[in-house]
């Protein structure tokens, strides 16, 4: 087994084990970006060498995932063969092959997340340097695992008849719905910031205010799933990756029927689990922040991230 294949095995295990331990900590520690950025706190300085530009740092840290993904999808480290066989290389797969189709799905998500979305947002709060650094680490591992898995013999064998599978297309359909929902609800937040920026620029005091650091503007979002929850963009992202996992990988299964505790979980499912466990605490705390900030004006019937439940 080559070194990359060994890393794949080790990182897949740790990437599965860490989120359940980190998730409870997230309920007590605010990740210092967005509405929890030190730049938005009245008790903390708005300028520091540890605070970095929100948009630029976001682009850099999110680009890590697709770059790493492309590298290992093309390198295909699990094809550790004594001789190179071009017909087994992802480079030679026809465009109709399911692994390549799913790779394009993955890259489309990150094209929006890493480039289109941050460039469309009117503003973004400064983030503490630890946020992009930790995100770079997460994205390095996830990009490596996903690219390695989709180019592996395991994935290609599982997906060999995927284009004729109801489950595959159901997963793809759910993933597309989640992706579109994520974009739509993000656009509602962007529109709030655009209106705030336009109002600020029209204000007589706008010129003097430009000389001092500005706090990010927040308002109550409305429309679509915002009628029911505070974080529909999170829910839609989970649905997107649930659909991707359903299409790309088998459900977690026992490695040996006689040893049920030994479970094989492919990277798409590991990524989904990590997303839910690490994002859910922030959604719950953000929901509480909304209610504290806006008080009686905030819709009482609105939940945090799952309509009618959570």
Shape: globular
* H-E string: HEHHEHHHHHEEH
Mean pLDDT figure: 83
Backbone structural class: mainly alpha
Strands across the major sheet, in which order?
Answer: 1-2
User: What share of residues are in beta strands?
Assistant: under 5%
Helix content: 55-70%
The tally of helices reads 9
Distance between the termini: 45 Å
Biggest sheet details: 2 strands, antiparallel
Number of domains: 1
The count of DSSP E runs of length 2 or more, i.e. the number of strands, is 4
Report on this model:
By secondary structure, the chain is mainly alpha-helical. It has one domain (3-200, 216-297). Helices cover 59% and strands 5% of the residues. The protein has helices at residues 3-26, 54-75, 98-120, 130-150, 153-158, 166-202, 206-209, 232-248, 267-294, and strands at 51-52, 127-128, 253-256, 259-264. It is globular and about 65 Å long. It starts with a helix and ends in a 16-residue tail after the last helix. Mean pLDDT is 83; it is low at 81-88, 90-95 and 208-213. It holds the Pfam family Steroid_dh. Keywords: Membrane, Transmembrane, Transmembrane helix. Its main location: membrane. The chain crosses the membrane at residues 58-78, 98-115, 127-146, 166-185.
């Amino acid at each position: 087994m080559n070194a990359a294949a060994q890393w794949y095995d080790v990182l897949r295990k740790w990437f599965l084990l860490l989120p359940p331990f980190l998730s409870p900590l997230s309920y007590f520690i605010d990740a210092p970006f967005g509405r929890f950025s030190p730049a938005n706190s009245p008790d903390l300085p708005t300028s520091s060498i540890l605070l970095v530009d929100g948009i630029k740092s976001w682009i850099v840290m999110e680009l890590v995932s697709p770059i790493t993904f492309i590298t290992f999808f093309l390198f295909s480290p699990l094809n550790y063969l004594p001789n190179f066989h071009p017909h087994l290389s992802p480079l030679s797969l026809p465009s109709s092959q399911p692994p390549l189709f799913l790779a394009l799905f993955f890259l489309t998500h990150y094209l929006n997340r890493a480039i289109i979305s941050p460039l469309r947002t009117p503003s973004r709060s400064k983030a503490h340097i630890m946020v992009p650094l930790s995100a770079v680490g997460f994205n390095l591992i996830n990009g490596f695992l996903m690219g390695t898995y989709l180019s592996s013999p395991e994935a290609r064998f599982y997906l060999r008849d995927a284009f004729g599978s109801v489950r595959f297309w159901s997963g793809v359909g759910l993933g597309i719905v989640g992706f579109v929902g994520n974009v739509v609800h993000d656009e509602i937040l962007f529109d709030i910031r655009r209106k705030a920026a336009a109002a600020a620029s029209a204000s007589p005091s706008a010129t003097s205010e430009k000389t001092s650091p500005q706090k990010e503007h927040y308002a109550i979002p409305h429309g679509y799933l915002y009628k029911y929850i505070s974080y529909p963009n999170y829910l839609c992202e989970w649905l997107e990756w649930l659909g991707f996992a359903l299409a790309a990988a088998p459900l977690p299964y026992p490695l040996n029927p006689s040893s049920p505790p030994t479970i094989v979980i492919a990277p798409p499912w590991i990524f989904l689990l990590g997303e839910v466990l690490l994002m859910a605490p922030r959604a719950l705390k953000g929901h509480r922040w909304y209610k504290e900030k806006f008080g009686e004006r905030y819709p009482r019937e609105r939940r945090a991230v799952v309509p009618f439940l959570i």
